[in-house]
Design brief:
It is found in: Cytoplasm. With 245 residues, this protein is of the alpha/beta class. 27% of the residues lie in helices and 28% in strands. A hairpin with a 2-residue loop joins strand 5 and strand 6. The protein starts with a strand and ends with a helix. The structure holds inosinic acid and magnesium ion. The site of inosinic acid (IMP) has 20 residues, from strand 1, strand 5, helix 4 and strand 9.
Length: 245
Amino acid sequence: MVSPLLTQSFQSCDSQMIQRENISNFIQQAEFLLPPIEIKDEESGYNKNLFCIPKHYEEDLERVFIPHGVILDRTERLARDIMQDMGNHHIVALCVLKGGYKFFADLLDHIKALNQNGDKSVPITVDFVRIKSYCKDTPTEKMSIVGELSTLNGKDIIKTGRTMKALLSELKDNEPKMVKVVSLLIKRIYRSPGYRPDYIGFEIPDKFVVGYALDYNEYFRDLNHICILKERAKEKYKSNVRLLE
Ligand code: IMP
Ligand code: MG
């Protein structure tokens, strides 16, 4: 039995315009799962000077929003929840590039550790797909999906859910036995035509974040923590020319 497992680092709420206070309830009712860690709108994160940040990004970041260690700890628990639910299904893990690669790798490391040390284990195969739906921090009209969808399984971040919906509709054509979507982050966006993942790491305010493979115009993927950008950094990195300097 093969069960595709899609991992992504972002997703936002929600097609059914659920009231914010009912979101956690809805998730539990829908999937009998624990709600994600909720990061409140007023949460400002941490002083970046208290963490190790690459020198080349120091002046660009406002705050550390989710430290790397917290991301890994939460991912470890998601791995446990997934393995408990998967039964004896063979897992095809599909990573949605590029933003999902860190989460995908860390999630699979935790799943592999469970496979190695637990009473039962299931085979896992991996696959990768690339979706481009944003230009810098702005959604684009045209969404391109590059990759082989026959063995589907993972994604990076869900904001409105538009990207994930497109991917899932492609997936359906391959008639998988079961598809589960894992998203590290879900943005609280109340009136968007979103898609709700089966497993969610954190529910965050609708702020643009970077780091842990999430980018702004291809920058900041090489940053471990999930951080908030300074407005002036968007100006600085808005052109790809910097990549060539
Ligand atoms: P959606 O289609 O609106 O759900 O957007 C999902 C995609 O947008 C993700 O796969 C990311 O590539 C990108 N994205 C959305 N929000 C952010 C953000 O805050 N930081 C970086 N990328 C983002
Ligand atoms: Mg991007």
